[in-house]
Write a sequence for this structure.
């Protein structure tokens, strides 16, 4: 129904917007409503994620099921909440600032570029009030930039590349907060402006240390407050509360204090977005590797693809552990040896075990067994992964290991077929007899 | 200031000390403003990627265990063009971050030296002592192990065989005295390292 009024925007499997060629994310805001006062049939777009890109305004609901876009090319005017309010005084006294945009639409009221009519859409920013200032600025910039005019076609999505480039843009956006954190933000701005003079100040690190110490003490207090606050809450019923908690955690992260991922919250917004981005990124490497990739390989691949604004190993781990909370087709798995991998949810151990079984029953393998590298070549996976699979097969009773000067090799498990009362009995059909024939044949 | 961070290992080391005193981990997440203001996050995470690369490339040779000194030397060779030297302290910090990803990245102390492990192989005290012994000549014999460490022959053979299995040791049976030598590429001196140029 909503698609009748606003053009749809494509989402990836993990809920991240699919950006067009050349489209770059500029700003990200949570808890934004979309309203259209002139249109009584306009559906309720409540509390979603608003993303400003160089080409569009994207709105994604919390459930990340479908998304909508307003092409910036359709915007004819932007009114900030300080300019003349169309509605009564009462509305302007509301806490949530509003940004109104005039967009062109078809005669029926559907938002479209070059439409004959125009409607006004209101963006209600229910997040913290500081955000609206920087937000309108970013919106103006993106709109004035007219990036869609320079591009040849606004068509195809740019897949992972666009996602990564967009991701870079997102990560550099600050999440300003009010109150004490606003004061601290001003401290930080002061720092940035005196960057040049700090060159010298760094000679004497003590000066910097005392400033940092103050900030960190305050940050610790905030963190404790956050943790005790989350214990008192029965459920995260209030959307606004959730938004501010996430912002708080983002801000804590920026001071260097790890954001606590509790049962109630999903950690900083940063990690949530990263989590979705990663889920998209890993699809290709996982396919290529046959369903499973070492976590450390993903760290290298992802960071190399990024180039700058890399992620830390802890960022990666946090992002992967958030997958449990979202509906993505990949998961994190830890083996007994401590090795961690990312595997697709549709991956089944049984498949690989069957392939190992058929490999180990071949006459050569019956005679000399298989090593991790043999398995790797046949299965078409990395040797480290192959070893993990062989060890798993051993735990399941399929294989037996043989440790000798020739190295570490695996044979099919014959013990299951051996009758304890009559050790030398070889049944006519079965693995044991196959092994006997193979062993005899080699003489 | 970004430049200072990237070019000056002593500066980095002081910075870390300061952060530790204040109780902050500048490398916890790259969203931190330490990272954005100074680019310190990118520096270490990139270093992490390079360390993983080098460990992977040298694994066929040393079984997943490499001297910290050696790792540093290879890293600096790689970074020569950018003129961004890294200290052993830098490596240690980058590796301590890599640890959380599983796969066994860890720094272990063997005698006076530090070795970087990049495989999940567990090394117990016996293995460590053999590696320490091997640092002298690059190899040991069963006899030597029994004599110097006062072990039973079973114990020595067991430990050596495990090290062999894990790819950390190589057998050399070509000596006239007929005694088997167990060589440990991971503790060999740098000059005998073959693969350096290819990296």
């Amino acid at each position: 129904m909503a698609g009748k009024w606003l053009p749809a925007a494509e989402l990836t499997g993990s809920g991240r917007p699919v950006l067009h060629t050349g489209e770059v994310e500029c700003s990200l805001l949570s808890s934004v409503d979309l309203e259209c006062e002139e249109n009584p049939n306009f559906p309720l777009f409540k509390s979603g994620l608003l993303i400003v890109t160089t080409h569009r305004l994207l709105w994604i609901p919390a459930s990340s099921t479908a998304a909508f876009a307003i092409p910036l090319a359709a915007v004819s005017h932007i009114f900030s909440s300080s300019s003349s309010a169309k509605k009564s005084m009462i509305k302007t006294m509301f806490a949530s600032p509003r940004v109104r945009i005039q967009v062109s639409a078809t005669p029926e009221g559907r938002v479209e570029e070059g439409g004959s009519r125009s409607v006004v859409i209101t963006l209600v920013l229910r997040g913290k009030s500081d955000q609206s200032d920087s937000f309108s600025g970013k919106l103006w910039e993106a709109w004035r930039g007219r990036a869609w005019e320079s591009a040849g076609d606004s068509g195809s999505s740019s897949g992972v590349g666009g996602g990564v480039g967009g991701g870079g843009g997102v990560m550099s956006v600050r999440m300003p907060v009010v109150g004490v954190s606003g004061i601290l933000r001003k401290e930080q701005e002061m720092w940035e402006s005196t960057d040049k003079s700090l060159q010298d100040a760094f000679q004497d690190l003590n000066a910097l240390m005392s400033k940092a110490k103050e900030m960190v003490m305050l940050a610790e207090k905030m963190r404790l407050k956050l943790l005790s606050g989350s214990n008192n809450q029965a459920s995260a019923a209030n959307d606004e509360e959730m938004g501010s908690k996430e912002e708080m955690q983002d801000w804590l992260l920026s001071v260097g204090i790890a954001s606590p991922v509790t049962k109630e919250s999903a950690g900083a917004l940063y990690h949530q977005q990263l989590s979705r981005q990663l889920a998209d990124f890993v699809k290709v490497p996982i396919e290529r590797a046959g369903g499973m990739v070492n976590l450390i390989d993903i760290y290298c691949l992802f960071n190399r693809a990024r180039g700058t604004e890399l992620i830390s190993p802890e960022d990666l781990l946090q992002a992967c552990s958030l997958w449990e909370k979202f509906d993505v087709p990949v998961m994190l798995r830890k083996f007994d040896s401590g090795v961690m991998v990312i595997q697709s949810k549709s991956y089944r151990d049984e498949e690989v075990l069957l392939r190992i079984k058929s490999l180990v029953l071949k006459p050569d393998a019956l005679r000399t067994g298989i090593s991790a590298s043999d398995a790797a070549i046949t299965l078409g996976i990395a040797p480290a992964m192959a070893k993990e699979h062989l060890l798993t097969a051993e735990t399941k009773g399929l294989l037996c290991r043989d440790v000798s000067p020739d190295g570490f090799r695996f044979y099919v498990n014959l013990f299951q077929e051996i009758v304890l009362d009559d050790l030398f009995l070889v049944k006519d059909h079965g693995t044991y007899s196959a092994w006997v024939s193979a062993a005899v044949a080699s003489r | 200031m970004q430049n200072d961070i990237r070019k000056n290992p002593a500066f980095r080391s002081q910075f870390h000390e300061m952060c530790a005193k204040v109780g902050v981990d500048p490398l916890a997440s790259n969203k931190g403003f330490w990272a954005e203001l100074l680019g310190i996050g990118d520096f270490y995470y990139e270093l992490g990627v390079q360390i993983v690369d080098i460990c992977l490339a040298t694994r066929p040779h040393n079984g997943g265990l490499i001297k910290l000194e050696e790792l540093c030397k290879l890293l600096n060779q790689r970074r020569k063009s950018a003129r961004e030297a890294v200290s052993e302290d830098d490596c240690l910090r980058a590796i301590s971050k890599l640890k959380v990803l599983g796969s066994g990245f860890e720094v272990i102390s063997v005698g006076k030296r530090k070795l970087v492990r990049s495989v999940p192989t567990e090394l117990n005290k016996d293995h460590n002592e053999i590696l320490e012994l091997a640092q002298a000549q690059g190899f040991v014999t069963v006899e030597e192990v029994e004599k110097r460490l006062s072990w039973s022959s079973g114990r020595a053979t067991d430990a050596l065989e495990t090290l062999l299995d894990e790819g950390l040791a190589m057998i050399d049976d070509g000596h006239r005295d007929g005694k088997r030598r167990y060589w440990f590429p991971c503790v060999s001196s740098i000059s005998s390292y073959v693969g350096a140029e290819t990296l």
User: Anything to note?
Assistant: Chain A touches chain B through 54 residues (CB under 8 Å). Residues 294 and 339 of chain A are 7 Å apart (CA to CA). Chain A has four domains: 2-150, 180-255, 257-346, 349-441. Residues 349-441 of chain A form a domain with the Arc Repressor Mutant, subunit A fold (CATH 1.10.10.10).
